[in-house]
Amino acid sequence: MDLCHVPAAREKGWYLALMAPNVKGPNYAWLDPSRLYCHPQALQDCLADLLQPFQGDAIDMVAGIDAMGFILGAAAAATLRKGFLAVRKAGHLCVQTEAQPYRDYSGQQKLMELRTDAISPGLRILLVDQWVETGGTMRAAIELVERLGGVVAGVAAICMENSEGGKWIQERYKCSHCVPPRLQPRFDQHR
């Protein structure tokens, strides 16, 4: 798809066709949404679709998850005119942090960190990541926000798979993603 072409009919998720499949093997995510970010209308429409369910909701800050969640999260924060908080993989913050272990989509055990001075009790945080596959990374971010006294106002990602972890998140938090229901089975089965 041409990175400048804008289709005449832009239904929700039209931009998903811009994503590229994994060609590097099993240690990488199965789809790469980063090409979607290169297309100005696709990025705008993706953000509009992600944020639409939260219109009128109280959101004090947007937090993006390391690393690709930084792109969508910062764009969402700018759109909402809110501050942006980076949820980092361990070892990247030089300030006081709170840490949470998690297992990522590839099954690797990792550690997520959040600065302790950014969240005050009751602060309503919209958590944003590029993808929720197994839910481990997002759940670690949720646990950090809540441990520091924040309230998870919602969870947004381009895709939220119907994995056990994805379902756990969707049952407990207001969620938004860009995959139309008719396409969800293809995303859940990685085809």
TrEMBL record:
Which key words are in the record?
Answer: Cytoplasm, Glycosyltransferase, Purine salvage, Transferase
Identify one Pfam family in the record: Pribosyltran
Residue span, Phosphoribosyltransferase domain:
51-178
Q: What is its main location?
A: cytoplasm
Question: Where found, per UniProt?
Answer: Cytoplasm
Record CDD domains: PRTases_typeI (cd06223)
Class in the EC hierarchy, top level: transferase
Reaction catalysed? AMP + diphosphate = 5-phospho-alpha-D-ribose 1-diphosphate + adenine
UniProt KW Cytoplasm keyword: yes
The similarity comment for this entry is:
Belongs to the purine/pyrimidine phosphoribosyltransferase family.
> Quaternary structure?
Homodimer.
What this protein is called in its record is adenine phosphoribosyltransferase
Organism lineage string: Eukaryota, Metazoa, Chordata, Craniata, Vertebrata
Q: What gene is it encoded by?
A: Apt1
